[in-house]
Amino acid sequence: MNPSVEFANKTGLVYSAVCKPLCQKLHLPQTAFDILMFLANNPNYTTARDIVEVRHIKANLVSVNVDKLVQEGFLERRPVPGDRRKTELACTEKAQSIIEQGRRMQDDFIRRLMAGLEEEKLEIFFEVIDTMNENLDVILEGEE
């Protein structure tokens, strides 16, 4: 397997495994947890469509899990001013404990993932990621 594909796949598998005990404790399906954490950690993304497009979760799973999160009081739907077709999703106060626990778990996951890497290597790694991100923007814009 291509090392990049293997790394991405393994990262996803390990992240899901690390999430599993917390999701069980919280009585939340992984997808519902992922939706809450995505909305909490990415305030520029607020709609179900954003979750589908950015997080690549299937639309039917987003719909079912958002409905459940709304019913349980963890999310609320709000109309988007100026666009009656859009509905914004917002985490409620009730979701804050889940979000805090999720962020602690995510921080621990990142700490464990980066274990053994010297500060200078981490700086280079993040510089490379930034440069690649800029290159992706250029490619998306159709420039070279």
TrEMBL record:
Keyword list, A-Z: DNA-binding, Transcription, Transcription regulation
InterPro entries: HTH_MarR-typ, MarR/SlyA-like, Tscrpt_reg_MarR-type_CS, WH-like_DNA-bd_sf, WH_DNA-bd_sf
Domain of life: Bacteria
Pfam families linked to this entry: MarR_2
SMART domains to which the protein is assigned, alphabetical: HTH_MARR
Coiled coil region boundaries: none
Domain HTH marR-type positions: 1-134
Name this polypeptide is given: MarR family transcriptional regulator
The organism of origin for this protein: Faecalibacterium hominis (ex Afrizal et al. 2022)
UniProt lineage: Bacteria, Bacillati, Bacillota, Clostridia, Eubacteriales
